[in-house]
Design brief:
71% helix, mainly alpha, 5 helices, single chain
Length: 109
């Protein structure tokens, strides 16, 4: 087995997984973006609070802005990874949760 091919661990969650057979650059990018994407995903809780539980109209306006940021961040990161992957369909199957985040963020807006 070549040194740049490493098997990825199975992940039931479908988030930030780089399939086996991808280059070192793709794996490095996946490791670098993983904590950022997890943090951005957690912003959905803030968005929910601001949109649905906040009585102040000024603060409620920030909810859709945060949703837009989440959508843009996930769409850009996913497009970047798909463009770099040797087999983009495998990457998308392994990261089905990112597709769900993009779709649900888009529907909210």
């Amino acid at each position: 087995m070549p040194s740049d091919i490493v098997k990825a661990r199975r992940s039931w969650i479908g988030f930030n997984k780089v399939p086996a057979g991808e280059s070192r650059a793709v794996r490095a990018l996946g490791r670098a973006t993983a904590p950022w994407m997890a943090g951005i995903a957690l912003l959905a809780m803030v968005s929910f609070y601001l949109e649905d539980l906040q009585r102040s109209a000024a603060l409620a306006l920030w909810g859709p802005r945060i949703d837009g940021f989440i959508l843009a961040a996930f769409a850009i990161e996913m497009a970047w990874m798909v463009a770099l992957c040797r087999k983009p369909e495998r990457y998308l199957r392994a990261n089905w949760l990112k597709l769900l985040v993009v779709a649900s963020s888009g529907l909210v807006l």
